Amino acid sequence: MMKSKFIIQIFILLFLIVNSAQANTITGNEIKALIINYLDNKNINSKPIIKENRVFKKCGHVLNIRPLFNNFKTVIVSCNKPLKWQITIRTNADSTPKIHSKKKINKVSNSIKLITLRNNLKKGEVIQKHDLKFDYKPNSVGNGFFESFDSLVGRKINQNLSKGQVIKIRHLEENFMVSEGQSIIIFSDLYGINVRMQGNALENGHFNELIKVKNISSGKIVQGRVINEKKILINY
Question: CATH 2.30.30.760: does it fit domain 183-233?
């Protein structure tokens, strides 16, 4: 009787040990499912090759999955804690993304997403963010267009523009870093001696361009290089 109780206790102990070990592991089958889902979100079909009954230490975070050599045909799956490990897995990924709808593919292949005007603007007006929107236009739209609102907000247009029109570089007044008549700082740094003087720009200028400036205190006109929106360097 005592012997039977002892055997039962041994079986119970082994059962608890096995269950505890399984709770702290992840199988190859689970990793395979994670890879398939990861690539599916990128519209890529895959059939990862991994032994489904293989066991790995369970990770304390979401497993890291990244392509090997920027190619999803092979991925690296890794864990950083509590135990650091990684494996390389062939995915047999289809390099051709899944096509969701013919209509969508045709739209993307025959057009381009560009910034257009939400409403009419008159010559001399300054573009504000609410004046802009994204729209798809034919690839034949040409060159000189913009793809970022930040490149346009605050710029002044040099002609009347209509609602829905694609904004191009030729529609904008030239964007000088320093404008003629602007108050600037004339800056000199020679042999470690730093000198600053108030001045006025006598010409428009882009970054790193040489322009004429006037020293307000002396009235002297000198030539300097545009460093930023306020500063002109006169020794270089």
Answer: yes
CATH of 102-171, one of 3.40.50.300, 3.90.1210.10, 3.40.190.10, 3.40.50.2300: 3.90.1210.10
* Sign of the C-alpha dihedral computed for residues 223, 229, 235 and 236 taken in this order: negative
Structure tokens, 129: 């963010």
- The angle formed by the CA atoms of residues 132, 136 and 141, to the nearest 5 degrees, is 95
CB neighbours of 75 closer than 8 A, spacing ≥ 6? 35, 38, 48, 65, 66, 67, 68, 88, 89, 91
Task: Give the residue range(s) of CATH 3.90.1210.10 domains in the chain.
Answer: 102-171
Q: Within a 10 A sphere around the Cβ of 36, how many other Cβ atoms? A: 17
Q: Report the predicted TM-score, pTM, of the whole model to 2 decimal places.
A: 0.38
Phi first, then psi, for residue 115 (nearest 5°) are -90, 130
Burial class (CB in 10 A: 0-12, 13-18, 19+), 138: exposed
Closest CA to 51 of 67, 34, 31: 31
Tens-binned pLDDT, residue by residue, of the chain (236 aa): 555 554 555 555 444 444 444 457 888 888 888 888 888 877 888 888 888 888 888 888 888 898 877 778 888 898 888 888 888 898 988 754 444 444 443 444 567 888 999 999 999 898 999 999 988 878 776 777 777 888 788 888 999 999 999 888 888 887 778 889 999 999 887 777 788 999 999 998 877 788 999 999 999 999 998 888 889 998 75
